[in-house]
């Protein structure tokens, strides 16, 4: 399957929380939070998901030298939402009302892997001819769901946004030709509750215990799940694509946590040189993490010729998703 | 584009609220709520979205004479969710753990039109060869987001679930061959706040005013929006498909409200005979409404040969979505 990347953009909001502030909050010695998580700072945004998404979209449109009027689909691929109703994609489109260009809007949600699922959808739409210029945006805003008394999520999660514009091979503005060498997505629901926000939906709309409105993850359980599932997942993805691990130029992983990424790299036998690791500067930005890191890579590499890139991550559900791309700068 | 329907199912939960109870609550004379809304009763389910989804899935699998192990993708297409994290599709898959058959799971959300968006995704996946046997399920559970003091949503919204299994033409178990004659989806974000739940997401996580956790719709504004947008939307869908309105055998509309459906039928010049209207028995079941009504139609019509069916609805966002299908029973 072939498609193109016309442009992309990423945005990191201004408000910063340093890991040294987390040290102080939890009575740890300076540097301990960074030592445990690999994270120096996280950024936060308080004006809602849709405005944060808009920031990345404007950068991506400029990068693509494309106007909003040229888009024909907007998919929001975030793990969290701005309002329970309507979908966040509609609220994002509201910020582009002055463009007088209505387009179809919907959300795709696979928590931290939403961007990977939305890429699958966008690629299928391009292959089937349903849509041509597809904007996929992931944005995560706010810190209200982070329990200030729980070290793990308090120290890991941050905000960011990133947007990609995908199109057909015929798009003259395309920057990169992309060949999808392989794609795999799998959900292992025995770990469905290892990372969750229990309350706020139909299961428990207004909980008695406020704790249930907070994000909770069982890091130990998730790492156990990754050990059990990741090696087989990856070898099946690579063998379907007939690609050896050494042929992968860049691994763009979900920046989940410093230790998690190290274990994943070891399990999958990735070298330090293959791994794009920017978690120190961003923390875990949920669904924004993979497109943010992917955009970072595209902007870093001057000469992107025939590079093989693997987007890979785990997300609540628990799901593992991977996209193996051969990318060629036009 | 061609695909098949292998099977489908719908489920209406047991707990009933009669419109005469709403008459009493709002001090109206008996029959007034039904006169205003077209609804005699709604059904409610208190055990969460995923269990309600499971009910419809089991019926659809039986209808398809298919086992869960034959599925290769599960899309949850609901307008509301069970938990903020993970996606509802994962929580649904958790109920099928004993099948020992992990499949990819994600959610598609376009509020009341989620099923239409998910159909577009499923059709593109089938056309592009990504997936073969795709389960799309819509389920809406709970009444916590309905303001008991607001007549409109209190009188309209109900719970239900419905599931469809779509596949390729090669699937020997397929019951219906389907040709997609046309599809259109459009979002008009100037009406993004005409139907919404303001609080509970990143915009306002824990609101000061509990009212903001309730669903609110401006029925007058939505009907105005429909008058402005629906006729042009529909004529563009029909002319792209080269189909006249009189060639449509059945309109399967989103069962939004009695008056809304009447206005839509008049605007679009549909006859009473074309319209599948079951709102009296179900109320507005959000995203479950279209697949529930579609399944009802398929089970009603004994001899489904070369019928042209239009799935059509409006949803929060505000979006209009339509799928024009030529359906032939094998």
TrEMBL record, chains A, B:
The UniProt entry's GO biological process terms, in alphabetical order, are: fatty acid biosynthetic process; secondary metabolite biosynthetic process
Which GO molecular function annotations are given, in alphabetical order? 3-oxoacyl-[acyl-carrier-protein] synthase activity
Know the name of this protein?
A: Uncharacterized protein
Known InterPro entries for this protein? ACP_syn_III_C, ACP_syn_III_N, Thiolase-like
PANTHER family assigned to the protein according to its UniProt record, in alphabetical order = 3-OXOACYL-[ACYL-CARRIER-PROTEIN] SYNTHASE 3 (PTHR34069), BETA-KETOACYL-[ACYL-CARRIER-PROTEIN] SYNTHASE III (PTHR34069:SF2)
Key word Signal present: no
Q: Which UniProt keywords apply?
A: Acyltransferase, Transferase
């Amino acid at each position: 399957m072939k498609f193109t990347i016309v442009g992309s953009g990423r945005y990191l909001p201004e408000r910063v929380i340093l890991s040294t502030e987390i040290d102080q909050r939890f009575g740890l010695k300076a540097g301990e939070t960074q030592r445990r998580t690999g994270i120096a700072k996280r950024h936060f945004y308080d004006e809602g998901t849709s405005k944060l998404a808009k920031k990345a979209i404007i950068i991506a449109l400029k990068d693509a030298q494309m106007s909003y009027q040229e888009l024909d689909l907007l998919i929001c691929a975030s793990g969290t939402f701005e309002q329970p109703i309507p979908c966040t994609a509609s609220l994002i489109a509201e910020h582009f009302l002055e463009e007088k260009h209505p387009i179809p809007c919907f959300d795709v949600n696979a928590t931290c892997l939403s961007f990977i699922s939305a890429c699958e959808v966008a690629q299928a739409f391009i292959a089937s001819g349903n849509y041509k210029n597809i904007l996929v945006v992931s944005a995560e805003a706010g810190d209200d769901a982070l329990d200030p008394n729980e070290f793990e999520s308090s120290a890991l999660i941050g905000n960011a946004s990133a947007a990609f514009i995908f199109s057909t091979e015929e798009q003259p503005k395309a920057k990169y030709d992309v060949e999808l060498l392989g794609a795999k997505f799998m959900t292992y629901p025995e770990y469905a509750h290892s990372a969750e926000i229990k309350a706020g939906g139909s299961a428990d709309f207004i909980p008695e215990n406020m704790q249930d409105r907070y994000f909770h993850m069982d890091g130990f359980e998730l790492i156990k799940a990754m050990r059990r599932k990741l090696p087989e997942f990856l070898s099946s993805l690579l063998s379907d694509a007939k690609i050896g691990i050494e042929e992968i130029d860049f691994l763009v992983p979900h920046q989940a946590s410093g230790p998690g990424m190290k274990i994943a790299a070891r399990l999958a036998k990735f070298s330090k040189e293959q791994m794009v690791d920017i978690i120190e500067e961003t923390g875990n930005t949920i669904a924004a993490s993979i497109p943010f890191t992917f955009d970072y890579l595209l902007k870093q590499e001057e000469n992107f010729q025939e590079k093989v890139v693997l987007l890979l991550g785990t997300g609540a559900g628990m799901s593992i998703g991977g996209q193996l791309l051969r990318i060629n700068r036009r």
